[in-house]
Write a structure and sequence with these properties.
single chain; Rossmann fold; 214 residues; two-stranded antiparallel sheet; nine-stranded mixed sheet; alpha/beta; globular
């Protein structure tokens, strides 16, 4: 394999879906929030992305079966909003800038083709003190204000690294609207509480009620 490729599983029927990306990162908040959204929506897998830019290992399941690292795309037709949810095992090395640009660009090609109405990337925001907050950055002042009005705090610390930030910036260059939601976390270990906070905030912002026991 000398370049990235997509493996199509099915052809979902979606109307102007919202694209939500949640990948491993600070506190694993993006991945946790994405999996909560998938469970809430009953999302079904429809596509996988494989790339030689991913690390050189395989994942092995409880039955001893191995597979390459990948990004997974899930479809969820809903009453209020249809969703495309992307999560995965890993990201390219932070030193491999070209790989990040290439994979984010290839993902946005798919998103554009499926007429996504909004890009949402989810990640973690490391803080030294414990706080239950969701920070927001956006492709426009109007969109940032909309999410601030719903309870988010403006993110003004200068950079958002990895696919969480780059996907948003590349989407803006294509004329697409998007927001990045960052959950406050105190460490690098998985923070399910912060992941749930971001997931619940996103659902509330989009007009969906979430029960605490999810």
């Amino acid at each position: 394999m000398d370049k990235s490729y997509f493996r199509q599983i099915s052809e979902p029927t979606l109307k102007n879906p919202i694209f939500v990306q949640g990948l491993p990162g600070f506190g694993n908040i993006g991945k946790i929030a994405a999996h909560l959204l998938m469970k809430f929506c009953g999302a079904k897998p429809f596509m996988e992305l494989y790339s030689p830019s991913f690390p050189d290992y395989v994942s092995v399941n409880s039955k001893g079966v191995c597979r390459l690292p990948r990004y997974e795309f899930y479809a969820a037709p809903m009453e209020k909003n249809d969703f495309i949810i992307m999560t995965g095992d890993t990201q390219p090395s932070f030193d491999d800038v070209l790989a990040h640009y290439a994979i984010c660009g290839e993902t946005l090609d798919v998103v554009e083709k499926m007429s996504c109405s909004l890009i949402v990337t989810i990640g973690g925001m490391p803080l030294t003190e414990e706080k239950t907050q969701v920070f927001v950055a956006a492709t426009s002042p109007r969109l940032a204000q909309e999410f601030m009005d719903k309870g988010a705090v403006i993110y003004s610390r200068g950079r958002i690294v990895g696919a969480t930030g780059l996907m948003l910036g590349l989407a803006k260059e294509r004329g697409m609207e998007g927001v990045c939601l960052l959950g406050a976390t105190t460490g690098f270990k998985a923070d399910r509480g912060a992941g749930f906070t971001v997931f619940k905030f996103l659902m509330k912002a989009l007009g969906n009620e979430v029960k605490e026991g999810l």
